[in-house]
Amino acid sequence: MKKVVVLSAAALVSLGLVGCGKQSNATKTGSATSSAVVDQYTKGEWALMAYMKTGDISAHDLKKNVDQLTLKHKGNRYTLKNDVQSFVCEIKGSQVKVTLQDADGQDLSDVSYTKKELAKQYRGGFGHD
């Protein structure tokens, strides 16, 4: 239950912060530096953005299905798990790597995103409702 509460809180806080236009002054002026993008979000928010992008999950779908997810966190590694698969998100520098695993924990595929790419996609709010 605690994991679901943590995930729900992270998702809702992330949605609220990004949806309200949480941006640095550099981003607002269009002259954002790499460090401004990197510092713009928490590691948990980067993991959530990568999870949503990898799974093609909208904010509406995330909110609707958040009770079916569990979250584990250790250091720079976040694992979002449902009944079918797990998304292991690892944040390193300006990269977010996502490894998709089946229900038995076997790696199926992996993909990496830059933080700049994720920030660009989600800066106006999470999802594509």
Protein structure class: alpha+beta
Q: How do the strands of the widest beta sheet line up side by side?
A: 1-2-3-4-5
Q: Total strand count, please?
A: 5
| Global outline | globular
Instruction: Give the termini distance in whole angstroms.
Output: 28 Å
Average pLDDT value?
76
Order of secondary-structure elements? HHHHHEEEEEH
Helix content: 40-55%
Total DSSP helices: 6
Largest sheet: 5 strands, antiparallel
pLDDT under 50 segments (min length 5)?
Answer: 1-9, 12-31
Radius of gyration: 14 Å
Strand content: 25-35%
Question: What can you see in these coordinates?
Answer:
- This protein is α+β, with helices and mostly antiparallel strands and 129 residues long.
- The chain has 6 helices and 5 strands; from the N terminus they run αααααβββββα.
- The chain has helices at residues 2-19, 25-29, 34-39, 43-55, 59-65, 115-122; strands at 70-74, 77-81, 85-92, 95-102, 107-114.
- A 5-stranded antiparallel β-sheet has the order 1-2-3-4-5.
- A hairpin with a 2-residue loop joins strand 1 (70-74) and strand 2.
- Helix 4 packs across helix 6.
- The radius of gyration is 14 Å and the shape is globular.
- The model is unreliable at 1-9 and 12-31 (pLDDT under 50).
Features:
single chain; 129 residues; alpha+beta; five-stranded antiparallel sheet; 6 helices; 26% strand; globular; disordered N terminus
Write the layout of secondary structure elements.
Elements: H1 2-19, H2 25-29, H3 34-39, H4 43-55, H5 59-65, E1 70-74, E2 77-81, E3 85-92, E4 95-102, E5 107-114, H6 115-122
Antiparallel strand pairs: 1-2, 2-3, 3-4, 4-5
Helix pairs in contact: 4-6
